[in-house]
Amino acid sequence: MTGYFVTATGTDIGKTYLGAALLRHWRREERAIAALKPVMSGFDPADVAGSDAGQLLMAMGAPMDSGGLNLISPWRFAAPLSPDMAAAREGRTIPYAKLVDTCRAVAGMMPEEGRLIIEGVGGIFVPLDDRHTVMDWMKDLQLPVLLVAGSYLGTISHTLAALAAMKLHGLAPHAVIVNESPVSPVPIAETVEVLRRHAPDTRILTLKRNPDAAAIAALAGAL
Q: Could you tell me the fold of the domain covering 2-222?
């Protein structure tokens, strides 16, 4: 089984966009695929298709019913806040050990040739409860990490800070994916060039806006 934990330098950077693109590619290759977005805040039951979990279900060709949602995203909260805050608004908490065990169980059921995406929530230090953050989650799962960054003004500092923080916690991304932002001050290639100079030991790839199937295939092949 090949699995990836998809995180980002912040929120709304493109984790779901990347995960869905990879799932569609692997589906075209007729591989066994699975995805988890275990924790999701800002969830509107009236707009399942517009949610992160809905996007991943569509990419897999899976039904967007309550059963599919419960499998892919067991901890869903209405408030568009960090998960610990969103859960508290509903008098709930995220059972961290169960979260980790759920991810491990799904990974353990995948066939050898299968592909799995586990999407985090927000950035690398988003709190999950009073003690744990996404960083702890990544460390406990020990899956290859795809760090999604943007190409907006400020992304170089944000990305290098995320890389430094991961290093302090004994992690290194399998790859950084620079997802082209709607507004970019410079061509994405220039941003990538600077990042590669400052992080020469890190694989840095790009995901341009509206990529075709060939571009996604090339990205998947480079992972």
A: Rossmann fold (3.40.50)
Both tokens of 63, joined, read 């039904």
**Residue ranges of the chain with pLDDT lower than 70?**
none
Instruction: Give residue-wise pLDDT tens across range 116-170.
Output: 999 999 999 999 999 999 999 999 999 999 999 999 999 999 999 999 999 999 9
Per DSSP, 183 falls in state: S
Cβ atoms within 10 A of the Cβ of 38, count? 24
Cβ atoms 45, 82 nearer than 8 A:
no
Is residue 167 part of the annotated active site? The answer reads no
Q: Where are the domains of the chain?
A: 2-222
Q: Which of 187, 155, 135, 41 is nearest to 176 (CA)?
A: 155
> Largest alpha-carbon pair distance within the chain?
47
The helix (run of H) or strand (run of E) holding residue 140 is helix 134-141
